[in-house]
Amino acid sequence: MASPHSDDRRASVALVLSTEADGLSDPVQMHGYKLIAVLMSTGWDAGNLTFQGGLSSGATFSNIYSSTGGEVALTADASRLVALSESEQSAVSSLPWLRLRSGTSAVPVAQSTSRALVLALALD
């Protein structure tokens, strides 16, 4: 479980996506923050990022979808800083806990080794 490290109105969270077949990260506490960008690992194996949200770290997490019905997904690649649009920020920051997934809910991507990502956050 990760919590934000803050500096005034901005914060960051170091997060690791494991080699597990589900491609999911540990939960991140988002209370009072919104996700604005993701700094990708230099060794990222091909796969977009999708999200799950939950009401607590031990709760059941659900896939996050946009109002148009599609899974909220970021196009991810190695060594990229991926910025979220305002609608993506709103969708993924609406619940107090967040998990990231390598790949989609239908086709998760297990990373070949654990990958470190950095989440850029702003006060909500």
Key attributes of the depicted protein:
single chain; 124 residues; mainly beta; Jelly Rolls; 5-stranded antiparallel β-sheet; 1 helix; 10 strands; 39% strand
Provide structural commentary:
The protein is mostly beta strands and 124 residues long. The chain has a single domain (5-123), classed as Sandwich (Jelly Rolls), CATH 2.60.120. The protein has one helix and ten strands. The chain has one helix spanning 86-92, and strands at 5-7, 10-17, 28-29, 33-39, 49-54, 62-63, 73-74, 81-83, 97-102, 115-123. It has a five-stranded antiparallel sheet with strand order 1-2-10-4-8. Strands 3, 5, 6, 7 and 9 form a five-stranded antiparallel sheet that branches. The longest helix is centred in the C-terminal third of the chain and has 7 residues, at 86-92. The mean pLDDT is 90.
